[in-house]
Amino acid sequence: xxxxxxxxVSAVLFAIGTIGVLLRRNAIVxxxxxxxxxxAVNLTFVALSQRYGLDGQVFVFFVMTVxxxxxxxxxxxxxxxxxxxxxxNLDSITLxxx
Amino acid sequence: MPSILAVVYWxxxxxxxxxxxxxxxxxxxxxxxxxLVQTLFCVAVLFTILHAPFIGxxxxxxxxxxxxxxxxxVIMLLNLGRSSGDLKGLVAxxxxxxxxxxxxxxxxxxxxxxxxxxxxxxxxxxxSMLVHQGVVGSVAGPLFDTYLVPFEITSLLLTAAIVGAVxxxxxxx
Lengths: 98, 173
Prior knowledge:
The complex is a heterodimer.
Chain A: H1 3-23, H2 27-52, H3 55-85
Helix pairs in contact in A: 1-2, 2-3
Chain B: H1 4-25, H2 29-49, H3 53-77, H4 90-107, H5 125-133, H6 137-143, H7 148-169
């Protein structure tokens, strides 16, 4: 039920997340866009688990765990970055440019 | 005449797409975060319609509850609530949109290249599984059986994330 439609919806959500990553400069907003992309992938897993068994839903569980760990570490990095640079604008953080 | 389920499904699917589009275009990071919460709620409804109510509940608890609170906490901690727009210029926006649509076109052929039909569950197998093992049990069964080792590694990952976050955020250990 709704498998094809859900695949289309999750593709659109993933594309919107990608556009968001390319469009924004704020590190936190880019991070939220990455979470949106992870969620689109979860939607694909759930849609296909209807046809191919519940292993897909177990993988959604793992993806959520990784997303939680990623959010914790990523936000800690952003806080550390803000402490050193007083900004979270990624265009003004150019450590590797020399 | 579409069924009531189809109406609800398409309403929330459309709302999810609109909310995610609002999320990436709002200038205020706080507004972005709240629109993302809206998106996550809509996706949770889609999960529930797609025979995964447990995943839907987890989505609300873990994503909309825990992770987004963390995001809002950091936005407010760093006082970014009324920062000026961080959207890139017109040219960059156009390029980003074109790339996104290109990605969508790339994803299109994948929908025809699914796994072989031989592994498709027989009709009604999922419903009987949900009835016999319960909504939570049918997900927990493989989690603690086939995927036991990855599950244990997950706890290791979470421990590493906790330690990493503390080390990064602390000024001096």
